[in-house]
UniProtKB/TrEMBL annotation, chain A:
Catalyzed reactions: ATP + protein L-histidine = ADP + protein N-phospho-L-histidine
Pfam family, one: HisKA_3
Biological classification of the source: Bacteria, Bacillati, Actinomycetota, Actinomycetes, Kitasatosporales
Protein name per UniProt: histidine kinase
Annotated Signal transduction histidine kinase subgroup 3 dimerisation and phosphoacceptor domain residues: 263-328
Record has Transcription as a keyword: no
EC class: transferase
EC number: 2.7.13.3
Segments crossing the lipid bilayer: 45-66, 72-95, 138-161, 202-220
UniProt source species: Streptomyces poriferorum
Automatic annotation (TrEMBL), chain B:
Protein name: Response regulator transcription factor
Transmembrane segments: none
Keyword Transcription regulation part of the UniProt annotation: yes
InterPro entries per the UniProt record, alphabetical: CheY-like_superfamily, NreC/VraR/RcsB-like_REC, Sig_transdc_resp-reg_receiver, Tscrpt_reg_LuxR_C, WalR-like
Domain of life of the native organism: Bacteria
One Pfam match: Response_reg
Domain HTH luxR-type: 149-219
The Response regulatory domain, residue ranges: 2-127
4-aspartylphosphate PTM sites in chain numbering: 57
Length: 451, 219
């Protein structure tokens, strides 16, 4: 399966259940013919049928509350009553969202709950009245009612008529046997009557029925699509609120990543260079003690200490490069990526096709993405060669790392790739992994271009 | 002196072992985490061969947070006879307070850097093994700086403050005298002056003296 990312994951029609059934049916029937027997059509039909009674209740409730509170506005009672009515509409919205989730597979996020500033009754009333979400819920109950009645009538009559005509040959015998007529009367006046009774007419009726059944399926979808729009447009959080939630989560990822990076650096320092320097200090301390009575042992210790210093320097250098590689700042992506490619355990060809340099932050993320991907190649891919391509496509910076290894890259939560996906997501970037078992693996990353 | 070392970095564990062995002490066991430390000490206790002192790193697997301190507190409770010296990369006054809770007998808290001064470090280990106290100068400085008795502390002469710091580290009068290059008698005079100014009753035992000073600074 390809990496789930972007808007696709939020489109339940593509990733929702029933996918397998539809895939199986696909082999036998084209989409147009499949529609009437699909579970989705039936679910939506049930939705439209339920809409009528539910919407009637909602409408009556909303009208009653609205007019009652409008009437009482003269007294003080009207305002809290209106707020209570709006709050009740919001409560009913929960029900409607659940119904849409179950039958339309439409996942609409819960709008933010109303919170009064002080927690008192009056501030709650004020918050309910000021919240656009409340009024949109009220609007939904009012607008949805006529629509629900219309959709109910159209879909029910088409559906009944279609199936009745389609199955007409099956029960046509009932008419001569019990009703004393030859068949369904198509036309009749005092001079002549037309009955559907010959085999040709039976077949024709059934054929017309089939056409209507086919068409009904699509009519139902069309009607349900309008319901979808209403539910997502009027019962969801506002677009601004949605974006705020999205950005909040992105910011959370950024903060978490930064904190995790700092912890990693601290750990690396603590376990690496710091420990080495303590050991070095200890060695030199011992050597100092021995300098007078055992110069030979002291010399050996100084020698060891010298070795330790060199290792500590190496570790510090690696760590500093891990924080930010100097070559990236000085020479840009091409040089920096070539440097990490040369440290990879398999031969890597690097191709960077950029006319200018992107912003430093983007460069940094691109560098660490490639670095992480090449580390994966070294550790897991069992590849014999790999390649890195970087290019610009309009306002996106594209990175692609491919290898000829065994594929089957792990995308589950907690894996390096999942972490990378999160990081890129935080800057509005995208990571797509194509890694079938047996390979080859192709990982493409997209970053916004900032010059 | 019989020592058990708990330190997750192999490099440092071996360095410490070599250092202590070199100066004629017996390192009976070296372990890499707190659980193994408690188990090892338990085993040794079973053989009636308790070590004199345990030297433990604060940060050890699995969580790399304060395993060492928690293990040290536990060991001090279960085997009051052994000294526990905790080594840390950073000074955390909180850890020192936890370690000193109850008694300051046979307890130490030092920065890892102190191992560079081999003699002083081994002196500190020996002191802790014998029931004394070894507090890092930085911990003492933090305690002095944070103490709410600043006005009283301000009444001390600079030399007296120095002596107070060294005393709080757990040093004996003669060690203080050596450090400051003065006579034992002079140190004794400073100490009695300090006790007078802080309003503490002079006590003879070195570790009880430390406790008195620390309690005073912490209150």
């Amino acid at each position: 399966m390809a990496t789930a990312y972007g808007p696709d994951t939020r489109d339940p029609q593509r990733s929702g259940g029933g996918m397998e059934n539809r895939l199986a049916a696909k082999r036998f029937l084209p989409a147009a013919l499949r529609a009437p027997v699909e579970a989705r059509t039936w679910r939506e039909f049930v939705y439209l049928m339920l809409s009528f009674p539910i919407s009637t209740v909602l409408f009556c409730f909303a009208i009653t509350m609205a007019s009652l509170s409008a009437g009482l506005l003269i007294t003080f009672l009207g305002i809290p009553l209106l707020a209570a009515g709006l709050a009740a509409c919001r409560g009913l919205g929960v029900l409607e969202r659940a119904r849409a989730r179950a039958l339309l597979k439409l996942d609409v996020a819960e709008p933010a709950p109303v919170r009064g500033r002080t927690g008192g009754l009056m501030s709650w009333v004020g918050a309910v009245l000021k919240s656009g979400v409340s009024w949109r819920h009220l609007l939904y109950t009012l607008l949805h009612f006529p629509w629900a009645v219309f959709a109910f009538c159209v879909s029910l009559s088409l559906w009944t008529w279609g199936w009745a005509a389609l199955t007409y040959p099956v029960y046509a015998w009932v008419f001569p046997a019990y009703a004393g007529i030859d068949g369904v009367q198509l036309y009749g006046d005092s001079t002549h009557n037309v009955y559907l009774d010959s085999p040709f007419e039976l077949a024709l009726t059934s054929a017309v029925g089939l056409v209507v059944v086919m068409a009904t399926a699509w009519v139902i979808r069309g009607l349900a699509a309008v319901d979808r729009l209403m539910v997502s447009g009027l019962l969801g959080p506002s677009r601004l609120a949605t974006r705020v939630t999205e950005l909040e989560s992105d910011r959370g990822v950024v903060v978490d990543t930064a904190a995790a990076d700092l912890r990693r650096i601290e750990r690396d320092l603590h376990d690496g260079a710091q420990a080495r320097l303590v050991a070095l200090a200890m060695d030199l301390g011992l050597a100092k003690e021995k300098l007078t009575d055992d110069p030979e042992a002291a010399a050996k210790m100084v020698d060891e200490a010298h070795g330790e210093v060199k290792v500590a320097l190496q570790e510090l250098r690696d760590l500093a490069r891990g924080i930010h590689p100097a070559v990236l700042t000085d020479r840009g992506l091409d040089a920096a990526l070539s440097a990490i490619a040369s440290r990879c355990t398999v031969p890597v060809t690097v191709e960077v096709d950029l006319a200018s340099r992107p912003a430093q932050a983007i460069e940094g993320i691109a560098y660490f993405t490639v670095s992480e991907l090449l580390q994966n190649v070294s550790k897991h891919a069992r590849a014999t060669r790999a390649s890195v391509d970087v290019w610009r496509s309009a306002d996106r910076l594209m990175l692609q790392v491919t290898d000829n290894g065994r594929g089957g890259a792990d995308l589950t939560a907690g894996s390096g790739l999942a972490g990378l996906t999160e990081r890129l997501d935080a800057v509005d970037g995208i990571l797509v992994v194509e890694s079938p078992a047996g390979g080859p693996t192709k990982v493409t990353a997209e970053l916004p271009w900032r010059g | 002196m019989r020592v058990v070392i708990a330190e997750d970095s192999v490099l440092l564990r071996e360095g410490l072992t070599r250092l202590l062995t070199d100066l004629g002490h017996d390192v009976v066991a070296g372990v890499g985490d707190a659980e193994a430390l408690i188990k090892t000490v338990g085993d040794l206790a079973g053989q009636d061969a308790l070590p004199d002192v345990v030297v433990a790193d604060v940060r050890m697997p699995p969580t790399h947070t304060d395993e060492g301190v928690r293990a040290a507190v536990r060991l001090r409770k279960e085997y009051p006879g052994i000294g526990v010296l905790v080594l840390s990369q950073y000074v955390e006054e909180q850890y020192a307070t936890e370690l000193l809770a109850g008694s300051s007998r046979g307890v130490g808290y030092l920065l890892k850097d102190r191992v560079a001064e081999v003699r002083e470090f081994v002196d500190a280990v020996v002191r802790v093994a014998q029931g004394g106290t070894a507090l890092d100068p930085e911990v003492v400085a933090q305690l002095l700086g944070r103490s709410r008795k600043q006005d009283v502390l301000a009444g001390l002469t600079p030399r007296e403050r120095e002596v107070l710091g060294l005393m709080a580290e757990g040093r004996t009068n003669s060690a203080v005298a050596r450090q400051l290059v003065v006579s034992d008698g002079a140190v004794e005079k400073h100490v009695s002056n300090i006790f007078l100014k802080l309003g503490l009753s002079p006590s003879d035992g070195d570790h009880r003296r430390v406790l008195a000073v620390l309690t005073y600074l912490n209150s």
